[in-house]
Amino acid sequence: MPRKKLSRAGFTLIELIVVLLVVALLATAAYENMNKTVSNSQALDVASRLVALGLANKRNALDNKGKYVHRRRKRGMLFDCDNAKCLPCTGEVCPSCNLLACKYVEKMLVIDKDFFMNAVSPASGRKACSLPQPKKGPPIIACASEGSVLKQINKKGKTRFKIRYGGWAYSYHTDGDVRAHGGAPVPARKKSPNGWRASDYD
Predict the structure, then answer these.
(1) Domain for residue 11, yes or no?
(2) How many CB atoms lie within 10 A of CB 39?
(3) Single pTM value for the model
(4) CB 60 within 8 A of CB 94
(5) Do 144 and 111 touch, CB atoms closer than 8 A?
(6) In a domain, 136, yes or no
(7) Cα separation, 61 vs 198, whole angstroms
(8) Contact 157, 143 (CB under 8 A)
(9) Which residue, among 200, 184, 59, has the nearest Cα to 130 in the 3D structure?
């Protein structure tokens, strides 16, 4: 009498490998989608803060005969303006701390631990967040960059700040555009041909 063949239990090695590969692919896709969500969230946060800083710089210019504020390395940093006074603009640019001291913007909107923000003036002719002013089109009046701030005290006891910029940056222009640089994340919905506006995502 012939014996019945027993059914095979478990998986072969090849089947296990195939299952593991499918699981790995699904996990990779989920991780990439999560990263995109985080990047979009970060981009919107930077943009909303940068727009607030840019609008504050515009309001300052309206009140000061077209003079924008500009960050200076030795003083006038936005994160070091707690005891600053609202000063008149005597030179070609206004002190950065005027944006906070003269109540153009709240400090909580323009200070963040994950990126560094600057208010800049086209009249300075210098780089903003390591970005050069555009040769054509609306100039940069505010910027945000990945990076860190180093506080140094020299032998004479004077404080000096050194900015170490990271790889990505955003710029805010006088026409309201926010432009991404150096691989900075940009949300999927993009309406402006040259950049994108935080208001596009409200």
Answers:
(1) no
(2) 14
(3) 0.70
(4) yes
(5) no
(6) yes
(7) 21
(8) no
(9) 184
pLDDT in tens, 149-200: 666 666 677 666 666 666 778 889 998 888 888 877 776 665 555 666 666 6
Q: How far apart are CA 73 and CA 94, in angstroms?
A: 14
Q: Under a CB-based contact definition with an 8 Å cutoff, are residues 122 and 90 in contact?
A: no
Where in the sequence is the domain holding 192, given as residue range(s)?
A: 17-201
The residue whose two tokens read 């002719």 is 125
Dump pLDDT digits (tens) for 86-122. 988 888 888 888 898 899 988 888 777 677 788 888 8
pLDDT of 63 above 90: yes
142: three-class secondary structure by DSSP: strand
Type of residue at 165: Y
Is 3 a domain residue? no
The SS3 assignment for 153 reads: strand
Torsions phi, psi of 116, nearest 5?
-115, 135
pLDDT classification of 37: cutoffs 50, 70, 90: very low
Q: What is the mean pLDDT of residues 2-12?
A: 58
Residue 200 burial class via C-beta count within 10 angstroms: exposed 0-12, middle 13-18, buried 19 and up: middle
